[in-house]
Design a protein that fits this description.
The chain has 15 helices and 16 strands. By secondary structure, it is α/β, with parallel strands linked by helices. Among the domains are: 54 residues, no CATH class; 103 residues, ATPase, nucleotide binding domain (Nucleotidyltransferase, domain 5, 2-Layer Sandwich), CATH 3.30.420; 111 residues, no CATH class. The longest helix has 26 residues. The radius of gyration is 23 Å and the shape is globular. The N and C termini lie close together (6 Å). Bound molecules: adenosine-5'-triphosphate and magnesium ion (MG). It comes from Stenotrophomonas ginsengisoli. This is Heat shock protein Hsp70. Keywords: ATP-binding, Nucleotide-binding, Stress response.
């Protein structure tokens, strides 16, 4: 069983080709879940797994086998490496056996909650650790400890996906094709891409996969469009996600295999619009532009994906800031409130795609506090991202030198009419095809996994 995995900034999905058909992995009744995880207490990683006597002797047997194999093949392997490998295998089998038991016991054993349920758990418990969009941190300058934590979080999410897929398909899933953006979000330039791939590889291994490969996300979406196209044609695929915007130029459809000519990407997406909307529409309620609280405090509060910034925001003191702003900032510092505010901001961005105004109740800050945001405010907040998108689209049009037959849009942000319109306008001679916003990339990854990976 070869799985396609879309480990997205905002949402995760997985699918496999079974009997020639793409089958989505079902996560509590949905084909995707929010890339959010909550740990009630300290996160346990694979190395901290506790062996009982039976498992310990299984590990010893595996190590003996590895030692024999190494000797026979003349390869030298350290005792430590062989023991880690054996523990990984025993732990994986133990997890898979637990997965066949009722869900409640696995949740307890895994010690983590995923998706929207993670937010709810955090809101109810008001403690523990909430991690949102860990993908956006993979390319950042990370201390070794932070790198290990991020890898551990990614491993938990990938293991959740692997075990859910294994249960659904009735067999252990151990190989995967993972999507990757053309450019990861990075604070260290191009080195961020290598670091991100390294962390994902490490995480996949910890999660019990034996083999993973990567495919650029827009190339994957082109595979899905290929599978659905009778006639051969040229396409520009535009995948607008939460963290990145990725484009591929490909020839697809008909009997020939799909051919991806080139890919482009910028590390910008829906979360950049969320940040701008938060700063311009919501943060003035907390005194931004009115008080002398520095702007970076508001940026820290708004960026819920950035764990160091979130921690930093909670260290500030607002006793001296005049009411109502000081008390509101202090309320925003309370455990889950930046996440609650972010949920309102994102909801506002989505609502204003199709409505003239949107109301957010902010009772968690102040009992009667609420804010009504008219649609033109979103136009302003989205302007910076839209400029970058238009520059990218113009570059792609120039590099290709002509309009393709089709411009195919996918990714959650492609639901926004103003972004669809931008993609269409960049290629005026092309037909605009609206792909499945949530499923385009993962369907292509499933096809690519079926074609490329060992079973
Ligand atoms: N109806 C909508 N209108 C506007 N934006 C939307 C809508 N639905 C979802 N979004 C936005 O789409 C983004 C998520 O898209 P998607 O699920 O494709 O991202 P992702 O694959 O997780 O991220 P990436 O590919 O960048 O890693 C979020 O920013 C979300 O707010
Ligand atoms: Mg995506």
């Amino acid at each position: 069983m070869r799985l396609g995995i879309d480990f997205g900034t905002s949402n995760c999905a997985a699918a496999a080709v079974v009997d020639g058909q793409v089958r989505a992995v079902d996560f509590d009744g949905a084909a995707q879940f929010r890339t959010t995880v909550w740990f009630p207490d300290v996160m346990r990683d694979a190395d901290q797994f506790e062996l009982d006597d039976a498992m310990a002797s299984q590990v010893d047997q595996l190590v003996e086998g590895f030692t024999r194999d190494a000797r026979a093949s003349g390869r030298s392997r350290s005792a430590q490496a062989m023991r880690s490998e054996a523990i990984r295998i025993v732990r994986r089998e133990w997890m898979e056996a637990r997965m066949r038991e009722p869900a409640s016991s696995t949740t307890l054993l895994q010690n983590a909650v995923y998706g929207d349920a993670a937010l709810d758990a955090y809101f109810i418990e008001e403690e523990g650790n909430l991690v949102q969009s860990p993908k956006s941190m993979l390319g950042y300058q990370l201390h070794p400890r932070a790198r290990q934590t991020i890898a551990g979080i990614a491993a938990h999410i990938l293991e959740h996906i692997r075990l859910t897929a294994s249960r659904q398909f009735g067999e252990p899933v151990r190989t995967a094709m993972l999507g990757r953006p053309v450019q990861f979000r990075s604070s260290i330039g191009d080195a961020g891409n290598e670091q991100a791939l390294g962390i994902l590889r490490e995480a996949a291994l910890q999660a019990g996969f034996d083999a993973v490969e990567f495919l650029e996300e827009p190339a994957a979406a082109a595979m899905a469009h290929h599978a659905a196209s009778q006639q051969r044609h040229e396409v520009v695929v535009v995948d607008i996600g939460g963290g990145t915007t990725d484009i591929a130029h490909a020839s697809v459809g008909g009997a020939q295999p799909p051919q991806v000519h080139r890919a482009w990407g910028i590390p910008r997406g829906g979360t950049d619009i969320d940040l701008a909307l938060s700063l311009t529409a919501y943060m003035p309620l907390f005194g931004r532009g009115i008080t002398r609280v520095p702007n970076h405090h508001y940026v820290e509060a708004a960026m819920v994906q950035d764990m160091p910034r979130q921690r930093e925001f909670r260290t500030h003191k607002y006793d001296e800031v005049d009411a109502p702003y000081g008390p509101r900032l202090a309320a925003l510092q309370e455990a889950s409130n930046t996440s609650r505010l972010y949920r309102e901001v994102e909801g506002c961005k989505i609502a204003l795609s199709s409505q003239d105004e949107h109301n957010s109740p902010l009772y968690f800050i102040e009992r009667a506090l609420q804010i009504t945001t008219p649609a033109p405010v979103l136009d302003d907040a989205a302007a910076g991202y839209l400029r970058e998108l238009n520059t990218l689209l113009a570059q792609v049009r120039q590099d290709i030198g002509h309009d393709p037959a089709v411009v195919f849009v996918t990714g959650g942000m492609s639901r926004a009419p103003y972004l669809r319109a931008a993609a269409a306008a960049a290629f005026p001679g092309a037909e605009l095809v609206i792909g499945d916003a949530s499923f385009g990339v993962v369907a292509g990854l499933a096809h690519a996994a079926a074609a490329a990976l060992p079973a």
